[in-house]
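SEQUENCE-TO-STRUCTURE ENTRY
===========================

Subject: a protein chain together with a token-level encoding of how that chain folds.

Sequence line: the amino acid chain in single-letter code, read from start to end.

Question of interest: how does this chain fold, as expressed in backbone structure tokens?
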Amino acid sequence: MTEEDFQQNENLMLPTEEYLKAGIHIGTKFKTKHMANFIYKTRPDGLSVLNIESIDERLQLAAQLLSHYAPNDIVIVARRENGWKAVKKFAELTGSKVFAGRYPPGVMTNSQLRNFAEAKIMIVTDVWPDRNAVQDALKIGLPVMALCDTNNQVNNIDFVIPCNNKGKKSLGLAFFLLTKLYMEARKMKFDSTIEDFTSE
């Protein structure tokens, strides 16, 4: 059975081909016990493949949870450059806060700082490079949503979104869907395309 066959599910938000094209389901050669439930299979080349139905379902749930928060209560963090375009677009369209690149130490825990930021929920694109932000969130009791690949540890994460969190196309697709669902749930006008979220 090829990957193309593995989940032709009519209930997905997008055709399976769109997910496959973005490589949102391609994991790494490493897998943690935390991510085992989201893994569909391991390919002959050793790469783990994530379950597309799980990705789709968790993105819908994540957007539903986010929709309970006003845009300025949401903060998104992406240390890895491949996620910058996608997270900046989410922030631009919704009005949420974003740290693309270096996350300034103490920016959410030290109210004396000039760039002090407050939020009620945090989204990180990868728990390892974004670990300083996750630590800050823990200190102030902020719930954390994280895009997690097959190799991620998710100890301090409140909500896991399984996906390839390293590829530009994959991150672009994930944030396209999160933005679309979030804005629709909050009755905001959404008329962007996947291309707007995907780096060239």
